[in-house]
Each structure stands twice: as structure tokens, then as C-alpha cells.
Design goal:
Order of helices and strands: EHEHEHEHEHHE
Number of helices: 6
Radius of gyration: 16 Å
Oligomer: single chain
Shape: globular
Distance between the termini: 36 Å
Structural class: alpha/beta
Strand content: 15-25%
Largest sheet: 6 strands, parallel
Strand order of the largest sheet: 3-2-1-4-5-6
Length: about 200
């Protein structure tokens, strides 16, 4: 029986790493990605491979469609299909709106939201032939209620949740299950403690 394959973006540490390791423990082939932290990404790769599964690490910005296309071309050649996509890549800016530059705004939207568009656009064709697949968007409680000093982050995480609603109505009948998981607080180095259990990914807003 062939292994299933999962892609986790933003997986060098924290929540993304915890999710990737969890899938490895379940016997999945794992593709992990981050934009800058190559050393940490390779450490995560080494940990995942200790569970006797295949792990491929890809360094690149998922907000850049050309880079994203390179990664998905590699996935298609190496694995042929994709069973699960976890959109976890994200960055933050803490401060007042009037102090935020246009460049900061564009950077956060590109990393947090454009990356979701890019990965969903390229993952769905890999899922359609098999008529199954899961896309999980790691959102935040700030996407549900808004944070006073995190306007761009809150806006993008709210967009994650809407992606889940759109995907479920557009593709749920045909191939994919879309889930937006709103976390409350997780230490960026240690991830989410609940991932040590069989806690299900679920929509919470």
C-alpha cells in the first residue's frame, strides 16, 4: 500500500513543525517548506526521517508563484499526487496601523494570504484525479475577532477562514475537504501541545 503525501508550509519550527512531525508519525511522506530558516528546516527534516518516512525539504517563498510552481513540479515528479496540503506559512507585524508601511502590509499579505492562493491553485489539480484530498488552513483567533495591534495579521487570518468556506462550496463535492483551524496561542518554538494527542483539526470560527 503506497504512502499518502502531505505538504506543510512554514514547517521549520513551531506549529508547522509539530504538524509535519505528527503526519510523519502517521506514516505519511512529508514535504516541508519555509522561506528563510534553512538550518531549522533541515533539522526538522532529520527528525521526520527518524520515523522511516520520506521527507523532502524545499526552501522558498510560497508568496512567489514562480517559486511555488518549482516546488509543485518537484512534488509531481517525486510523488505523483498530493493528499494533504497544510497552509501554515505566516508572519506578523505588531504595531499601530498609522505606523505600518505599505511595504510591511504587502509583505504580510504576500506571505500569509497570497501563499494560500498559490498553494491551493497548484494543489487542487494534484487532488482532482483521485477525487480526494484535504486542505487545512492554519488560521488564528485574531482572524475571528481581530487584534488591536495586528491589523494585517488579523486581516490575512480572517481570509484563511473565508478560503475554507469558499473551498468547501467550490470543491468539496468533487475532491477536497477544506478546513480552517483557528488556534489561540502557541509558542513559536515549541508548537501546539495538543498536537501531542490525536486532537482533530477543526473549524472553530
Amino acid at each position: 500500500m503506497s504512502r499518502k503525501t502531505v505538504l506543510v508550509t512554514g514547517a521549520s519550527r513551531g506549529i508547522g513543525k509539530a504538524i509535519a512531525v505528527k503526519f510523519a508519525k502517521k506514516g505519511y511522506n512529508v514535504i516541508i517548506n519555509c522561506a528563510h530558516r534553512e538550518q531549522e528546516l533541515m533539522q526538522t527534516k532529520k527528525e521526520i526521517e527518524s520515523y522511516q518516512v520520506t521527507c523532502t525539504a524545499f526552501l522558498g517563498d510560497m508568496g512567489d508563484m514562480s517559486v511555488c510552481e518549482q516546488m509543485f513540479s518537484m512534488i509531481r515528479k517525486q510523488f505523483g499526487s498530493l493528499d494533504v496540503l497544510v497552509n501554515n506559512a505566516g508572519i506578523d507585524y505588531i504595531g499601530l496601523l498609522q505606523d505600518m508601511s505599505s511595504e510591511d502590509w504587502d509583505r504580510i499579505l504576500r506571505t500569509n494570504l497570497t501563499s494560500v492562493f498559490n498553494c491551493c491553485k497548484l494543489a487542487i489539480p494534484l487532488m482532482l484525479p483521485a477525487r480526494h484530498g484535504k486542505i487545512v488552513n492554519i488560521s488564528s483567533v485574531w482572524g475571528c475577532v481581530g487584534a488591536s495591534c495586528e491589523v494585517a495579521y488579523s486581516a490575512t487570518k480572517g481570509g484563511y477562514s473565508k478560503y475554507g468556506e469558499w473551498g468547501g462550496s467550490a470543491y468539496g463535492e468533487w475532491c477536497s475537504e477544506f478546513v480552517s483551524w483557528c488556534v489561540n496561542f502557541a509558542d513559536e518554538y515549541y508548537g501546539v501541545s495538543m498536537l501531542g494527542t490525536d486532537y482533530p483539526l477543526q473549524t472553530s470560527c
